[in-house]
UniProtKB/TrEMBL annotation, chain A:
The lineage of its organism: Eukaryota, Metazoa, Chordata, Craniata, Vertebrata. Keywords: Coiled coil, Nucleus, Ribosome biogenesis, rRNA processing. It is found in: Nucleus, Nucleolus; Nucleus, Nucleoplasm. This is Pescadillo homolog. One of its GO terms (molecular function) is ribonucleoprotein complex binding. Component of the PeBoW complex, which is required for maturation of 28S and 5.8S ribosomal RNAs and formation of the 60S ribosome. The keyword Chloroplast does not apply. One of its GO terms (biological process) is maturation of LSU-rRNA from tricistronic rRNA transcript (SSU-rRNA, 5.8S rRNA, LSU-rRNA). Component of the PeBoW complex, composed of BOP1, PES1 and WDR12. Within the PeBoW complex BOP1 interacts directly with PES1 and WDR12. The PeBoW complex also associates with the 66S pre-ribosome. Residues 314-407 form the BRCT domain.
Automatic annotation (TrEMBL), chain B:
Component of the PeBoW complex, which is required for maturation of 28S and 5.8S ribosomal RNAs and formation of the 60S ribosome. Residues 251-509 form the BOP1 N-terminal domain. SMART domains: BOP1NT, WD40. Component of the PeBoW complex, composed of BOP1, PES1 and WDR12. The complex is held together by BOP1, which interacts with PES1 via its N-terminal domain and with WDR12 via a high-affinity interaction between the seven-bladed beta-propeller domains of the 2 proteins. The NOP7 complex associates with the 66S pre-ribosome. The PeBoW complex associates with DDX27, BOP1 interacts directly with DDX27. Component of the PeBoW complex, composed of BOP1, PES1 and WDR12. Within the PeBoW complex BOP1 interacts directly with PES1 and WDR12. The PeBoW complex also associates with the 66S pre-ribosome. SUPFAM superfamilies: WD40 repeat-like. InterPro entries: BOP1/Erb1 (IPR028598), BOP1_N_dom (IPR012953), WD40/YVTN_repeat-like_dom_sf (IPR015943), WD40_repeat_CS (IPR019775), WD40_repeat_dom_sf (IPR036322), WD40_rpt (IPR001680). This is Ribosome biogenesis protein BOP1. Keywords: Nucleus, Repeat, Ribosome biogenesis, rRNA processing, WD repeat. GO terms for biological process: maturation of 5.8S rRNA from tricistronic rRNA transcript (SSU-rRNA, 5.8S rRNA, LSU-rRNA); maturation of LSU-rRNA from tricistronic rRNA transcript (SSU-rRNA, 5.8S rRNA, LSU-rRNA). The keyword Repeat applies.
């Protein structure tokens, strides 16, 4: 036949992808620069659907990028800057080698730099996009801000990160947007709702880092470079929304203490009363929810929203009017941050750190946060509580009873506020108790009673499962089949008691019928759907198994017998 | 003119020096005119001139200049008078005055040095060795160096006849030969040589004054001595620095420093102070603070009050001498009158008055580069703030296609209760779980960390993998391919097909109501009478039993000569015949149950047979039973050549098909006509192992199921009409819908295939309801029901509605799973059959029972 012979791998998916090495060559960049560019521009590899086709018949493991992405990178002005920098380094090295110090100085003066502003704008065309993606930036900046000047990264980066994080915290305090906090074994999680976006970040505990050797700090530094730029712009915009000037001025207090480290500055900034001007603006906002004529579902939604709003306001004023004093052993920074986010006054010992506004001896202090088994001198008119109270109260959106958090008391478990239990998931009894408390029920119920309730609930839940139903059915079938005897005569069968019996039995019968119906319908499912269904059911069964495992653990010590009864 | 030139040049330089030297620190005494008029009369053209030596110390310690004195008198160049000066350089390096050498035959004599030292503020000794003895003067090396090392003056030439130049070298012991050729001047009068060394060790300048016939130098030196007097104890010691200004570490490893006049070693004072002694000394000795260590002699020197004063003054930046007046009226050293004659007669260079080509070239290069734009003016520094409102103008057009395609990175997973520092106790791992966790690979672990419980916040340690986790997140962000995965977030209930409720599809058998017990082995086959009153069953215990359906009573038991494979009741209600097959025999029985009229008419039908005239050879032998067998109900016996597996009646009740499965012959299916006792083999060819056969209920079609296919033959046309692909591995049973357009096939691989014959040769529906091999399938005659029995011991009743409307597909709904049979020898239900009129189903099982579900 005529016509040109079609060559393989010259059309279709093979031409849409490009391997990493080819991409690197196309861009004329070293691997390190390519990596940096990818990080800055947010380009990531793609997994082709048919790897072998794309790989031109080979099955060797390769990283593929979209050719479109690489073409996009070709137009990036920063690539030129990378090359300029390379040249600069070469020249500088040469000048050093020749000990031409004037040349070195001149080169240094003309050091090529680049800005990431346009990349940020390009990656996040709207502010909300940027805000949505700030979780990682926050966590990274908080991590870098805890680094010591050990040469793992530039000192300027560390100070910049510190500055940005302090600004962020100040924004959160001022806008009262903190929602949830959680003390984990990794660090402290915070969740804030900023302009409708839930933003979660993790702050490590204040310890010196044991820098691992198998971590490439250059990669992290590149990310941080991008993140600090993004973060700064976001801070600017956020401060603007609060009608505040950015960058915020250093308070007089800090100016006096230029020598104090940045972490201290953080604190002092937190304790100082910040931008009271905003308060009026906020009060205005409180009444913003207008009434619209609505009906039906809209009305319901509206009501729900109103209720939510009210709850939110209540939470924001959680600690208002309270006066806290932080003992020296509690993590000042996080606690001061949280307490101030919810309107409390905070102070600490002046000798510890700057920024303490009042003393221990202040009679108006309502709560003193202590993290030691006992304290010598106690004032009678204040509560001495452990720090977990603050965290738990914030998560519960109410001031929890302080009795459980007194000094020396074994603390109740600290639960994650981020877990949202679905049907059939395991709910720790403490959470149930808390939910009851939130609904306004009396806390002073007997413990045993509570437990029983929980157990029953679980029992019901478990009952719902197919598993038990099937078991019941099997039992019944067994009973039926046992009706036979080996005698030749015809023996009268027995009528099942529940078939004619009371209402309860009828209910049972109905249930049984339903179950059978379902089982029969399942038989008629298509193969594909059946597979999917089985998978879902497997997952469900796993969760029930986990629940029962947790239950078993709870009861293994105290009331093993109870479980047997269940 | 030349002179002028040179002089002017000289002045220039001097002034330059002076500029460099400001503020001048003049250590030398107020200028005293030491020189007497020349003693030597003679024809000397150049009379003596008096020099006022003047050494100026430059503060940073550079130029030390002894300006040549101006002379009164006509002689321009007169003899010099040199006076040694030791000038202390501020940073404290010792300045050495070369000692005079001794006259005598020894050419290379050791130096005689009388050290005197001035304490420099930081505490280093300054040694000045005044000449001790008149005699030959060591002339310092000729060239005079300018501080930066440029030779300024040409070597002096010995002008005077009395001078004798003698080389002189000083050897330094550690073998670092320091040769300096001196030119000694032998003058009858003692000379006072002075050489000033630059601190950095470069010989700077040496002034020498020959003062013939005068003892003045000595006086002077004593004066010096008084000025820079050392402690008497020091003077009494006969230790002097004889080595000159050399790095003292050369002598570090030797017990001595230098040599005396006799060539003997001068030993260092014994010094065995250790740190403790030093400390005690520091504590106890009131003069400790004014004691300094002199490296050149390796001795401690206690500074006198004057010296301390001097030090203080120097520290304050004042002149060493109290009486020194720094604001003396300046003296013009050189004449300011412009001389009319040049110093030399050399003509001027050409290059001094034509422009430089090199410079021109350089400039033109620069101009060219600027023109070409190679050299650009430096850009002004950017002044935009680091952060500004980046999203001030949110342009909707800025959202590119890229952004729509962009897959945002998934957020980090939020922590659960188990990550808490104080989790509920049920989240902590038990000992076994912990062990299992530790043994697992990091990727397999369900939790990437071990839950821990801490009693208080204070006890929580740092998380060791924090940076790791952050880093891994970074890697994920830029190395992981992203994909939009459609998460199937379906309610599993929605997946279940919406079927009509079984309740609405009633009637169908729901409960087991009767169990027919009597057989002692597997009941292979059952069949119900067309009236629905009786049931026949054949079993492996070689019996055929007749049961009354309603009561479960066994009406009759017939022993046959082998395990019964199949029984079939004649579907014609006017005939009471049952076909039973065992081994290679098909037996036609008249059970004698039911209407007597029918029974007798059946007997009559059989006996009324008249053999045809010509006896054709048949595949089977027909034999009429007689005697006791006849009484038992046996009527006809058809002896086949091979073992028979199945018998099936045609709907009219006259024809009968028997199956003899055999893979190798074409004699597998035989069709018998009872009324004519005729047998024929419809197939000439073997198409595979025949599993079962069936007649079409209405039309002359014949269904043959081989292992994988069902073939439909037209008996009249004698041809194959259809071949149905069952997609099964091995067909076990088959049933045809009473309407005749649908067919079900049960197979040993747990499937049931429903064929719509009008639709296609592929199954309309495959049902995988059973867990094990299907053994029997059956349609109900009137109700839209079909049943399947399988080895899992269950009978599944399905509603199988076939609509008259050809466009509507059959509706298949499973309505009931009936269980009751016990599984024996891995066999459950072996045969199912429906009651002909009621929605009841019979099933026979391997547990030797027959069950009726109603």
């Amino acid at each position: 036949m005529g016509g040109l012979q079609k060559k393989k791998y010259e059309r279709g998916s093979a031409t849409n992808y490009i391997t990493r090495n080819k991409a690197r060559k196309k861009l004329q960049l070293s691997l390190a620069d390519f990596r940096r560019l990818c990080i800055l521009k947010g380009i990531y590899p793609h997994e082709p659907k048919h790897k072998k086709k794309v790989n031109k018949g080979s099955t060797a493991p390769r990283t593929f990028y979209l050719l479109k992405d690489i073409r996009f990178l070709l137009h990036e002005p920063i690539v030129r800057k990378f090359r300029e920098y390379k040249v600069f380094v070469r020249k500088l090295r040469k000048a050093y080698g020749k000990a031409e110090w004037t040349a070195v100085e001149r080169l240094r003066d003309n050091k090529p730099g680049y800005k990431l502003d346009h990349i940020i704008k390009e990656r996040y065309p709207t502010f909300i996009d940027a805000l949505r993606d700030i979780d990682d930036a926050l966590s990274m900046c908080f991590l870098f801000s805890t680094f010591a000047r050990t040469g793992k990264c530039h000192v300027q980066t560390i100070t910049l990160c510190r500055r940005l994080t302090v600004e962020w915290m100040n924004y959160v305090v001022t806008s009262r947007s903190l929602r949830k906090v959680f003390i984990s074994i990794k660090g402290i999680y915070y969740q804030a709702e900023v302009l409708g976006q839930l933003i979660t970040w993790l702050v490590p505990y204040q310890f010196a880092h044991d820098h691992p050797t198998d971590v490439d700090y250059r990669v992290m530094a590149t990310f941080t470079e991008m993140y600090t730029t993004l973060f700064g712009f976001i801070n600017f915009r956020l401060y603007q929304t609060l009608n505040l000037v950015y960058p915020p001025k250093v308070t007089q207090h800090e100016k006096l203490n230029r020598w104090v480290s940045c972490s201290l500055q953080k604190l002092s900034a937190l304790s100082a009363s910040l931008a009271r001007v905003v308060a009026t603006a906020e009060e205005e906002e409180e009444n913003q929810l207008d009434q619209f004529p609505a009906d039906g579902e809209d009305l319901e939604n509206m009501e729900a929203r109103e209720k939510e709003q009210k709850e939110q306001e209540a939470q924001n004023r959680l600690f208002e009017g309270l006066k806290f004093f932080l003992n020296r052993e509690v993590p000042r920074e996080s606690l001061a941050f949280i307490l101030r986010c919810f309107g409390a006054e905070v102070s600490w010992d002046k000798s510890l750190c700057i920024g303490g506004t009042y003393n221990v001896t202040d009679e108006t202090i309502t709560h003193q946060i202590v993290d030691r088994p006992d304290i010598d001198k106690q004032y009678i008119n204040r509560y001495y509580i452990q720090p977990q109270w603050v965290f738990d109260s914030v998560n519960a959106k109410m001031r929890l009873p302080v009795e459980d958090y007194f000094l020396g008391v074994t603390l109740p478990p600290h639960l994650s506020p981020f877990v949202e239990e679905k049907d059939g998931d395991y709910v720790p009894p403490e959470k149930l108790k808390l939910m009851a408390l939130q609904r306004g029920e009396k806390h002073e119920e007997e413990e045993d009673d509570d437990d029983d309730d929980d157990d029953e609930e679980y029992n019901d839940e478990v009952d719902d499962e197919d598993l038990t139903e099937e078991k019941n059915l099997k039992k019944m079938e067994d009973q039926r089949s046992q009706g036979k005897t080996l005698a030749v005569k015809v023996t009268p069968g027995k009528v099942k008691p529940w078939e004619t019996g009371s209402v309860g039995n009828k209910v049972r019968l109905e249930k049984e019928e339903k179950a059978e119906e379902k089982r029969l319908a399942i038989m008629m499912m298509k193969k594909k759907e059946k597979y999917l269904y089985d998978k879902i059911m497997f997952g469900k069964k796993r969760t029930t198994r986990e629940v029962s495992e947790h239950l078993r653990k709870i009861h293994s010590g105290s009331s093993f017998l109870l479980l047997l009864v269940l | 003119m030349r002179l002028w030139n040179e002089l002017s040049y000289f002045t220039c330089w001097i002034s330059h020096q002076a500029r460099l030297c400001t503020p001048p620190t003049r250590l030398c005494t107020p200028p005293t005119r030491l020189c007497t008029p020349p003693t030597r009369p003679g024809p000397a053209l150049y009379s003596t001139h008096q020099a006022r030596p003047c050494s100026v110390l430059h503060p940073p310690g550079q130029a030390l200049l002894c300006t040549p004195p101006t002379r009164p008198g006509p002689a321009l160049y007169s003899t010099h008078q040199a006076r040694p000066y030791s000038v202390l350089h501020p940073p404290g390096q010792a300045l050495l005055c070369t000692p005079p050498t001794r006259p005598g035959p020894t050419l290379y004599s050791t130096h005689q040095a009388r050290p005197y030292s001035v304490l420099h503020p930081p505490g280093q000794a300054l040694l000045c060795t005044p000449p001790t003895r008149p005699g030959p003067v060591l002339h310092p090396p000729g060239p005079v160096l300018h501080p930066p090392g440029q030779a300024l003056y040409s070597t002096h030439q010995a002008l005077y006849s009395t001078h004798q130049a003698r080389p002189c070298s000083v050897l330094h012991p550690p073998g670092k030969a320091l040769y300096s050729t001196h030119q000694a001047r032998l003058c009858t009068p003692p000379t006072m040589p002075g050489s000033v060394l630059h601190p950095s060790g470069k010989a700077l300048y040496s002034t020498h004054l020959t003062v013939p016939g005068l003892i003045q130098p000595i006086c002077f030196s004593t004066r010096l001595l008084t000025r820079f007097s050392l402690s008497p104890s020091f003077l009494s010691q006969d230790i002097r620095n004889t080595v000159g200004n050399i790095p003292m570490e050369w002598y570090q490893d030797y017990p001595h420093i230098g040599y005396n006049l006799d060539g003997k070693k001068i030993f260092k004072p014994i010094r065995n102070k250790d740190e403790l002694d030093e400390f005690l000394d520091k504590m106890e000795n009131p003069d400790y603070w004014r004691t300094v260590h002199d490296k050149t002699t390796a001795s401690d020197i206690r500074l006198s009050d004057e010296q301390v004063d001097l030090v203080h003054r120097l520290q304050k930046g004042q002149f060493g001498d109290v009486n020194f007046n720094e604001y003396e009226p300046s003296v013009d050293f050189f004449t300011n009158e412009v001389m009319i004659h040049p110093v030399t007669n050399r003509p001027q260079d050409k290059r001094s008055f034509i422009p430089s080509l090199i410079e021109k070239e350089k400039v033109s290069k620069l101009v060219h580069a600027i023109k070409m734009g190679w050299i650009k003016p430096r850009k002004p520094k950017e002044t935009t703030p680091q952060y500004y409102d980046l999203w001030a103008k949110e342009d909707p057009n800025a959202i590119l296609g890229r952004h729509k395609m962009h897959v945002p990175a998934p957020k980090m997973r939020l922590p659960g209760h188990e990550e808490s520092y104080n989790p509920p106790p049920e989240y902590l791992l038990t000992e076994e779980e912990r062990m299992a966790w530790e043994q697992q690979d990091a990727e397999d672990r369900k939790l990437p960390f071990l839950p821990q419980k801490h009693s208080c916040l204070r006890a929580v340690p740092a998380f060791s993998r924090f940076i790791h986790e952050r880093f891994e997140r970074c890697l994920d962000l830029y190395l992981c391919p992203r994909q939009r995965k459609m998460r199937v977030n379906v309610n599993p209930e929605d997946l279940i097909p919406k079927l009509p409720k079984p309740k609405d599809l009633q009637p169908f058998p729901t409960t087991m109501s009767l169990v027919y017990i009597g057989h002692s082995s597997l009941v292979r086959s059952i069949s119900a009478s067309p009236t629905g009153q009786w049931l026949v069953s054949g079993s492996d215990d070689c019996t055929v039993r007749f049961w009354e359906v309603n009561t479960g009573r066994c009406m009759k038991t017939l022993e046959v000569g082998g395990a019964v494979k199949s029984v079939a009741w004649n579907p014609n209600p006017a005939v009471c015949l049952v076909a039973v097959c065992f081994e290679s025999t098909v037996l036609l029985l008249n059970p004698g149950l039911g209407d007597r009229l029918v029974v007798s008419s059946t007997d009559q039908l059989i006996t009324s047979y008249e053999p045809p005239e010509e006896d054709k050879e048949q595949a089977v032998t027909w034999a009429l039973s007689e005697g006791p067998e006849h009484d038992n109900g046996h009527r006809l016996t058809l002896t086949h050549p091979k073992a028979v597996k199945q018998v099936v009646w045609h709907g009219k009740g006259d024809y009968l098909a028997s199956v003899m499965p055999d893979n190798s012959s074409n004699l597998q299916v035989l069709i018998h006509q009872v009324s004519k006792r005729r047998t024929q083999n419809p197939f000439r060819k073997n198409k595979g192992l025949v599993q079962c056969v069936s007649f079409h209920p209405l039309r002359p079609y014949f269904f043959v199921a081989t292992q994988r296919y069902v073939r439909v033959y037209n008996l009249i046309k004698q041809e194959l009409t259809k071949k149905l692909m069952t997609n099964c591995k091995w067909i076990s049973s088959m049933a045809i819908h009473p309407g005749g357009d649908n067919l079900i096939c049960g197979s040993y691989d747990c499937r049931l295939a429903w064929f719509d014959l009008d639709l296609s040769t592929k199954p309309y529906k495959m049902l995988r309801h059973h867990k094990k091999a299907l053994r029997g399938v059956a349609y109900h005659k009137h109700y839209p029901l079909f049943a399947s029995g399988a080895d899992d011991g269950s009978v599944i009743i399905c509603h199988g509605m076939v609509y008259n409307d050809l466009l509507q597909n059959p509706l298949i709904v499973p309505v009931k799973v009936l269980k009751g049979h016990q599984i024996t020898h891995d066999l459950g239900v072996l045969d199912v059959t429906f009651h002909p009129t009621q929605p009841w189903v019979f099933s026979s099982g391997a547990d030797a029972t027959i069950r009726l579900f109603t």
